[in-house]
Amino acid sequence: MPTPTPTPTPTPISIRVARTLHDLTDVIAVRSIVYVEEQHCPLREEFDGNDVAGSTHLLATLDEEAAGVLRIRWFADFAKVERVAVRRRYRGGMVSKALLQSAFSLAEDKGYRRMLLHIEPSLVEYYLRYGFQPRQGRPRFHYSDREYMEVVKELMPASDAISMDSPALCVVRPEGAWREAGVLDLSSARGIAQRGGVCDEVWKDAEGRSGIGEKAQE
């Protein structure tokens, strides 16, 4: 009797905030494949000037291979999801689901209550699954040769969402990693360095050594 072929274990999808140049290169590559190559979006319209200022990019990977991306822009009372893109070989819904759920969590950790998204009308049913609803009374519009409509999702801010009353070192941690000690948390263990004041005297001894402030007595 032949030995049954074991069912392969699905590779877990990893989602992270793009923080490095390598991550951003992956973001650009995925969007170039999906939007510029497949959907024929002009390059200057796909990379529209909103990718550096005020944006957070989420990167989905499987076995360290870039599979999908999503961009979030932050406004005063809402967050806007944009540029959801998944490479063809990884399509099927799981990558986009993981990206969207990570975007919801990130926005809720920042205290947001609403998330806006522009979608093609043919995708309404898909986004209804994730709690988005069409905005009533808002007209459809078009750009980059495609028609769009607005949908919005109500969010539930996290009980420990970032605020001005959060611990100071929590606020300076990397985007999306506020519950983990960051590099500045570790630096605080060194204490406060003794630094010279702006009016302290600069000294130099006969052996070429120099310093600021009071010279040590030999």
From TrEMBL:
Query: Record's SUPFAM superfamilies?
Result: Acyl-CoA N-acyltransferases (Nat)
Q: Signal peptide position in this chain?
A: none
Record GO terms (molecular function): acyltransferase activity, transferring groups other than amino-acyl groups
Family matches, as InterPro entries: Acyl_CoA_acyltransferase, GNAT_dom
| Annotated ranges, domain N-acetyltransferase | 13-154
Q: Which Gene3D superfamilies match?
A: 3.40.630.30
| Name of this chain's protein | N-acetyltransferase domain-containing protein
Q: Which organism is it from?
A: Stenotrophomonas chelatiphaga
